[in-house]
What does this fold into?
Amino acid sequence: MKNGMNLIKTVFFSEILKGLYLTFKHLLAQRVITEQYPREKRVLPDGYRGVIVHLRYDDNTEKCVGCALCEAACPSHCITVESAEREDIPQKRYAKRYILDVTKCVFCGFCVQACPVDALASSKEYEMATTDKRDLIMDKEAMLKLGDQYFPVRAKRPKHSQDRYDFFKTMKQTEFPTVKKGAA
Ligand code: SF4
Ligand code: SF4
It folds into this structure.
């Protein structure tokens, strides 16, 4: 029975007729579905994962604390983090050097999920075509600039972070009380 149906379909070119029907349906509908890029640009969905960017707090400080968890989470090994201690706050670290090699990035978003302070985000930037691959190796400053462009509304810096900064600033200006010899 099944073979018989297949034979009838073959004899009457049913697949070709189906295809022609679809072609003429779209032709007569006269719906323009070609986008005239770059003059017309597509509206991207909110979950779009474009180039990874760095974010800042509302007081302009960078969120990144240089922990390198993003580097560990990246399956393409395209992130390099070199962290250092901030001079003004003991034990507080920052990314002294942060490099993202966009040529290797697969836009999976693992780095964004791994970051404990939400310092990274996927932007909607996709126009990165270039004739020089070196343009696609981004440093922290370039990523911050893109972050400012795509995420102008910034999160408030946590109060405990400011308190810690104020505490160490005060400690620097105040001398520790000296301990007298022989005192219990
Ligand atoms: S999006 Fe994926 S591949 Fe790209 S830097 Fe982040 S973790 Fe690596
Ligand atoms: S971007 Fe986030 S995960 Fe990566 S080093 Fe900075 S704080 Fe750590």
Notes: The CA atoms of residues 112 and 120 lie 5 Å apart. The mean pLDDT is 88.
